[in-house]
Amino acid sequence: MKILCTLIFLLFLVGCAHRLGTEVITYDGINRSPTPIDVNIPIYDSREDVPFNYKVIGQVFAAPMRMERDLGFNPVEMLKEQAREIGGIGLLNVSKGEGDSRNEYSAKVLTKN
Predict the structure, then answer these.
(1) Which run of H or of E encompasses 95?
(2) Whole-number pLDDT of residue 61
(3) Which whole number is the average pLDDT over 17-42?
(4) Distances from the Cα of 109 to the Cαs of 16, 17, 56, 88, 100, in angstroms?
(5) Which pTM value belongs to this model?
(6) Which residues pair with 22 in a beta bridge?
(7) How far is residue 31's CA from residue 38's CA, in Å, rounded to a whole number?
(8) What is the three-class DSSP state of 99?
């Protein structure tokens, strides 16, 4: 019973930390349908790499805490998850912070224009 309570408590903490370590900013305020989980969210390094006419619909941030990183949470996957939630189909300019914010990641979210 003690192990079960500890496990539930840890899962609760991970769930809270996961929500606290992410942020989504939408630019146009349009509610889009989430992108299905089976659709790949590609990452593009520059605007010239994007093979379709697109619109930037927002920006996503992920700053996984140490416990999340230790449990295997991938910040880039966290960015993709958030992009899916707002209807994104691609990420542009994924960047990693420097110095004290080296565990902070961000990217612009794309959809077809």
Answers:
(1) strand 90-96
(2) 96
(3) 86
(4) 24, 23, 6, 6, 25
(5) 0.76
(6) 62
(7) 20
(8) helix
Please check the confidence at residue 88 and state whether its pLDDT lies above 80.
yes
Which residue has 């006419």 as its token pair? 53
**pLDDT computed for residue 16 by the predictor:** 46
| Strands 43-44 vs 90-96: parallel, antiparallel or unpaired | parallel
DSSP per-residue codes, 22-52: EEEEESS---PPPPPTTS---EESSGGG--S
CA angle at 59 for the pair 80 and 73, rounded to the nearest 5°: 35
Residues 93 and 43: their CA atoms lie apart, in Å, by 8
Alpha-carbon distances of 17 from 22, 50, 67, 105, rounded to whole Å: 9, 33, 9, 16
Q: Is there a contact between 96 and 50 (Cβ–Cβ < 8 Å)?
A: no
Strand partners, 110: 56, 90
pLDDT tens digits, one per residue of 50-60: 999 999 999 99
